[in-house]
Amino acid sequence: MLKRVNAIETQELRKEYRGRAVVDSLTLTVPPGEVFGFLGPNGAGKSTTVKMLLGLVHPTGGRLQVLGGSPHDPAVRARLGFLPEQFRFQTWMTAEEFLRFHGRLAGLKAADLNARIPRILETVGLGGRGSETLGGYSKGMLQRAGLAGAILARPQLVFLDEPTSALDPIGRVEVREIIEQLRGEGTAVFLNSHLLSEVEQVCDRVAFVKQGRVLQQGSMRELMGGVLPLDVRVDHLPPGLLDTLSRLGELRHTDTNTPGRADVELWLDHEDAIPAVASAVHASGARLYALTPRRPDLETLFLDLIEDTPDSRARTARQGAARA
Ligand SMILES: Nc1ncnc2c1ncn2[C@@H]1O[C@H](COP(=O)(O)OP(=O)(O)OP(=O)(O)O)[C@@H](O)[C@H]1O
């Protein structure tokens, strides 16, 4: 049996531009068949990382391997797929010609391409449109064509840089299904995306990056675990209630703007504290209208990590409350 090598391995990977590190001490492992989300604000170094992993940009330091080898090795390259964020295609080609061209570069035979191109066009939602020139395609259709090109040669590792930026909601769901299908076939996917809800739904693990450094990485379960936001709605806040609640958990947000109603967001360490919250409300004399535990979503975690300032915390809490 063939040894299953990691799709991506980096150690202390670094890239400097004019003496400034834009990727710094990046150590990552992506096993085969994993969908890995790479998240960070604009300028965090995500595209530079992808370019290093594809052999398009030379690292200043550190080590990297993709599919057990160097991205400069043609045998490795033939097993990589890439959908860049800024895609530009040959407008005079039809989608079929474009895919044939890509397929031949990846070493696919004519018979294989003849069978595969119509199927892949169907997969990305361009069935029956393959004979039209790319110049007449909409932005979303071009992104779909680019995705078809990235997965045509059955790569073992695909880099998708903001793969749904031009797509409508249906297109986004379709791309998610394609990513899930790739995972099912054992293909690893390295996904750069700003759409956190998308990442949340599809990724096995994620890394948060800022200014070239990984702030946190782990499985969705690991990142989501540990805290339990609890939304508490009461008719009013008697004196002392907030103090009592703040001893049971971290008081994240209080909203008393609506007459006859007060909303409190409390972050608990464990659900065992929920009955104590109910008792504290009852003992204070307030009437309890809702006690809703909620898992923190990726956006809340992301904003917390990326901008760990009092302002961002307040905003995070407000957004959390708005979503609840
Ligand atoms: N060729 C280059 N020369 C100089 N600086 C560069 C070059 N390429 C990228 N940078 C800088 O490196 C930093 C990281 O850029 P990068 O494109 O990797 O970020 P990103 O996380 O992909 O951002 P975005 O989400 O906006 O696409 C930025 O400050 C950028 O200006």
TrEMBL record:
Matching InterPro entries: AAA+_ATPase, ABC_transporter-like_ATP-bd, ABC_transporter-like_CS, P-loop_NTPase
SMART domains: AAA
One GO molecular-function entry: ATP binding
Keywords associated with the record: ATP-binding, Nucleotide-binding, Transport
Keyword Secreted: no
PROSITE patterns tied to this protein: ABC_TRANSPORTER_1 (PS00211), ABC_TRANSPORTER_2 (PS50893)
CDD domains to which the protein is assigned, alphabetical: ABC_DR_subfamily_A
Domain called ABC transporter: residue spans: 8-236
Domain of life: Bacteria
Family: Belongs to the ABC transporter superfamily.
Protein name: ABC transporter ATP-binding protein
